[in-house]
Amino acid sequence: MPTETLEFQVEARQLLQLMIHSVYSNKDVFLRELVSNASDALDKLRLEKLRDDAPDADVSDLHIEIDVDGDARTLTVRDNGIGMSYDEVGQLIGTIANSGTAKFLEELREAKDAAGEEGLIGQFGVGFYSGFMVADEVTLVTRRAGEGHGTRWTSRGEDTYTLEPVDDAPQGTSVTLHLKPADPENQLHDYAAPWKIREIIKRYSDFITWPIRMMPESSAAAGEGDEAPGPETLNSMKALWARSRDEVSDDEYHELYKHIGHDWRDPLETIRLQAEGTFEYQALLFLPAHAPHDLFTRDFRRGVQLYVKRVFIMDDCEALLPPYLRFVKGVVDAADLSLNVSREILQQDRHIEMMRRRLTKKVLSTVKDMMTKDQDRYATFWREFGTAVKEGLVTDPENRDTVLDLASFASTHHDTEPTTLKAYVERMKDGQDDIYYLTGESRQGIENSPHMEAFRDRGIEVLLLTDAVDEVWADAVGEYEGKTLRSVAKGQIDLDAKDDDSADGEREKQTEEYAGLLGWMTEQLDEDIKEVRLSSRLTVSPACVVSDAGELTPALENMYRAMGQ
Ligand code: ADP
Ligand code: MG
Fold this sequence. Notes:
ATP binds at residues 33, 37, 79, 84, 99-100, 123-128, 173, 343. By secondary structure, the chain is of the alpha+beta class. Helices cover 36% and strands 19% of the residues.
């Protein structure tokens, strides 16, 4: 087969341009990305071998190797892991499969300044392409374990890349960066210097569970007659979750998070849990600081990895946490599971079920702690993930009260600061028995609703709920600390009943008086409306439409319709 020259997918090209003209100040991280990919490839191969899916693969000395050649100004990261087939290289390296990419690029175009851009790049995590921050040409040679032929991919990061078959590629993948010319002003960023590589690996990749070796530079090899010096292992390979808290720095935890979470930024919170007894496990979980773009898409990849005694078993392990905590990243290492454990088995395992309940409670209690100890951090968390967490009010009855306690909502009490239900209840007026809310598409839309008039006039606080999930939980939950949650758009709400007993009599009299008109209106609007009645809920608008208590509100109807129900 001859060499093929192919075009990058549009999105891929845009990302490459971004990398080449990168505003990202910390270029060191390209090496972390390449090592992270190599480590993933070794994990995958070991797993295939365990499952007997790759009988011909060589797993005798799985490792990562880094070669620097100062004269040629090249840096190579090599692994003997799973590798890629010819087609896979084209698919995985030439395109960007992630569904959030288009959205990301759109936001990037809108980001006004370099700081905004940098933040967005960090959020996206561009993996393999980050090599182009430091190289003007990248060559990747790979052979899928068990296959006879390899593939070479080359690109200068412009519009095209080339693909060609190679006969003699070793198993696994090597990525060679042709480094950009060194900046004589700034020796600190010379990636052709072994000390620099040592430093970066130690800083970003120390916990990687495979040995990362560096060969001594050939030009610096020992003189004649001496034994050639062997490779040097750069990382300690210690699993962070198995080490005690005081042995590990925050930075080390954060680097692990970045590797697992494919995020370039620090996590918001690190959560450790060690369970001893009949079913032993260690968990190291992270709450990210930012919600990913695809959190609410069907194919969202969760971030909790399952290990069994330090051996990576699977990514995206849905049995470990409920769906409403799908944004949590981390590692769970269980001592007593079979290495062959499957997703199906995990779903039914009694111990896993217990573990999930414990981890869920631990995550929720961590958020609760944040709420009391660090308001700002809690506010960030809720802003980013509150919408997802609220799903738990419907799907996790066991923890419903806890979730209600740590939720916060926009409210008429304050223009920008959300309130907890507890604070709402504390502010309730004398004689007010219910917690009022109104759902809608936007805060402004809700505030302009005629339903709000009477509440505004009487100074009664109303929660302003704008997420689709709000209607579902508010109905399902029903009450908080004995107070009914009531939509101001549903059923009869008699705000004056408490402080004015004569109101009822007055209304009856009026209803009699207007009976003819109301009857006529009900008849005229028969097709759209069940009944026309006098109301005390309006002060300015002449009329408004209300649903019966228990009926779907218009927004909920829309949501169900959107879900195809
Ligand atoms: P991510 O690691 O987040 O998936 P990358 O851009 O880093 O994104 O890599 C894209 C894909 O290319 C990986 O998911 C993997 O399938 C493949 N890949 C990259 N490097 C390697 C490697 N060293 N060995 C095997 N596959 C690799
Ligand atoms: Mg990667």
